[in-house]
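Collaborator request log, item 7. Partner lab (contact: R.S.) asked for a structural prediction of LacI family DNA-binding transcriptional regulator to inform their binding assays.
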Amino acid sequence: MRARPVQSMEPTASLATVAADAGVSVATVSRIVNGKNGRASAETVARVEEVIARLGYRPNPVGRALKRRASRVVAMLSPNLDNPAMAAIAVSTEAALRDAGYVMILCDTHDRAELQDDYLRAMRGQYVAGYVMVGALRSRGLEEAIGRGDPMVFVARHNPLGGGAYVGIDNRAAGADAADFLLAQGIDRPAVLMAAQNASSTAERAEGFIARLVARGVPDEAIRRASVPGLSHVEVGYAAASSLVREGDWPRGLFCVSDMIAYGAYRLACESGVRVPQDCMLVGVDGNAINAWIAPWLTSIRVPYENFGRHVVDQLRSLWGGAATAEIRVPHGSLTS
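Returned to partner:
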């Protein structure tokens, strides 16, 4: 069920509005609002208070809490928490925030822009100190939050509006490593499975994979690709593999831009009597902890999600301190099976 939209908490008048009406500076209004009247005359104080009452100005508790760093709550907005990778990022970040003295609120956006905006409004109403945006989507609410200067760290997927603090791996390099691995196995015509709604992270993995194959002499037109719409990567993997093999034989090697896509492709391989990895080697990205239990057939590039949390906290502290935004690229691991 869609979350009920939260009404705006913005005041009808601002400090600047009051200052202009009263003919004083914003700093003077701020001091009077906060009870620091020593530097203002009694006439000025009375005039400002009259304007405040007439315009219905009330201090913005969100802005005051953030300015004073009074809030010890950080909101994480993440898509599809049934994905082990998303859950691993949440676990890592919650632990790092707790060690730093903060409490984390976790919201599942289900990769829906309108739900992301509902949560952004709701969390602003809770006076959160900052936001951890995992897999953020372009939306009106995100534009407004960035425009206000709300502290935000983007994780795994870059800010869709560009710029901003970021924590994640070098996804193109991960894709290139997958290409090198498959070529080293003597598989000279590997294929790639993608999602039609590719996020920047998974799209970059596919781009890195294809670019490396081409750089190593594989003709671009010889690289088979398949993508289908959908938000569930397991379903995408199954449907994309089905599309791929309808147009030709199973490839000897198949790069899946996430482990979940590989799970879906493996299901189709089993149904088709294709042995993995003997007939078709599957390579994924994530290195989910459950692979050793349910997917010993999968070779995967391990993403060290357990290290993301401390980098997220470092980025938040930099933002709270007024530092310029930066990107932190966490080194990915080698391929494991």
